Amino acid sequence: MQATLRDEVRFDGVGLHTGERCGVSVEPAQPDRGLCFWLGGTEVPATSEYIVDTTRATVIGRDGVTVSTTEHLLSALFAMGVCNAEIRVTGPEIPALDGSAEEFVAAIEATGLLEQRVARQTLEPDGPRIIERDDRMIVAFPAPVFRVRFVADFAPPIGTQYLDLTVDPQQYRREIAGARTFAYLHEIEALRAQGLARGGTLDNALVFAADGPMQPLRWPDEAVRHKVLDLIGDLALLGAWPQCEIVAIKSGHELHASLTRTLRAAAHVPTGS
Questions:
Q1: Which residues, including other chains, have CB under 8 Å from residue 60's CB and lie 6 or more apart?
Q2: Which residue in 17, 226, 253, 256 is the catalytic one?
């Protein structure tokens, strides 16, 4: 069944990339509304047609108005079963909080869900859908449940990591929500020169120095768990629950966006308002 929040939840903080103060309130919505952002007076449905950038984060927008780093909040809402919500954003970005989805999940659980007695929309591909870029790939296969198999391969000290997970609220809360966004110490200055990571600190991002992580890890394979967190958030832009198995090899926001667009086009999903 579809579900929405029982009450509004709100988050305030600093944007990971912009470094600016920002806030977001997530409010209950009617059945079949879907997830919808409000950027001031501009309505932006949370679907892949409105992706405008995928450089280190998923940015969506419309008519020149954008919001960055949508993936962590969308990941939490989507995996925890929130189908319909009005998402009102103040500032250019969703607050980073601790760099994971843990606080979003805690707030969703605290307010609870309201079942809406309308069947949840699902999307099942009619065959394998493959997106490839150089040595990176993502594939969606028809399947009875939403399952992710992710291979991440990074330079030392992270290395190669693998995670296989069936996505449901319990698994997500236990295995994924607390995994933090991450970066290498040596690349932070380059990111800031590109206008990124300006709000990043050791409180909202996991940083890897040459000899290892600069903070205690929450899991030995926290990096791949965060990649799965991001993937789930990007797949929320399908606008329907993915009844499929996703196999991802070194994929990121760009490939995820291409896959969601491909799946929506193949399923002839309406593009929203």
A1: 37, 44, 46, 50, 51, 52, 66, 67, 70, 237
A2: 253
Write out 34-66 in H/E/C secondary structure.
Answer: CEEEEECCEEEECCHHHEEECCCCCEEEECCEE
Peptide bond between residue 157 and the one before it cis (omega within 30 degrees of 0): yes
The residue count of the chain comes to 273
Q: Are 232 and 167 in contact (CB under 8 A)?
A: yes
Q: How far apart are CA 261 and CA 157, in angstroms?
A: 34
Q: Are 80 and 13 in contact (CB under 8 A)?
A: no
Give yes or no for a contact between 162 and 224, defined as CB atoms under 8 angstroms apart. Answer: yes
Beta-strand relationship, 51-53 and 160-166: unpaired
The yes-or-no answer on residue 253 being catalytic is yes
Q: What are the structural domains, with CATH classification, of the chain?
A: 3-120 (3.30.230.20)
What are the pLDDT digits (tens) for 215-237? 999 999 999 999 999 999 999 99
Tens of pLDDT, residue by residue over 51-75, are 999 988 999 999 999 999 999 999 9
